[in-house]
Each structure stands twice: as structure tokens, then as C-alpha cells.
Amino acid sequence: MKPLERAIVTLVGIDRAGIIAAVCTYFADNQVNILDIKQTTVQEYINMMMIVDLDKCKKPFPTIASELNDVGTIVKCTITIQKEEIFNMMHRI
Description:
Structural class: alpha+beta
CATH architecture: 2-Layer Sandwich
CATH superfamily: ACT domain
CATH class: Alpha Beta
């Protein structure tokens, strides 16, 4: 059994209705499974981090990253995605 192709998604912006729905709809439409999610709001700001499984997604990683950027533009937030291996290498002590 091959390991999951996991990625880390971060979202930062001003909180408003529909942000989480837009991101989750994109994931559902593209067979991306959310494995874990953490959201924090401080006053009017939202910060969300998700660990997702890309195994069943048919799109290449650069396309997913670009399309998530487009979703971020629509909801007026910054959305980034990194492969888990890269994220872990960047945050090693």
C-alpha cells in the first residue's frame, strides 16, 4: 500500500460567510479529502490550516495550487498549498 499523497493548505484573510464552503466545495469537486482541519479567528481575521489527501485527485499539483489561488481571490483570502514533504523539510529543527 502506497503512502497517502498529503499536502498542507493554509488560508489567511478577513473572515466572512462562505470562505470554508468555497474551499470545501473545491476539494469535494476534485476528490481531495480533508484529513484534518484547524481554524482560528481573531477579531475579524481567519487563519485555517488543513491536511489533505490528494491521492484521488486527477489534477497535477501545480493546477491544484493555481486553482486554490483562484478560490482565494474569489473569497478575498490567501490560500497556499505545499506538499507535506516540502512543508516538513522547511520546518525541521
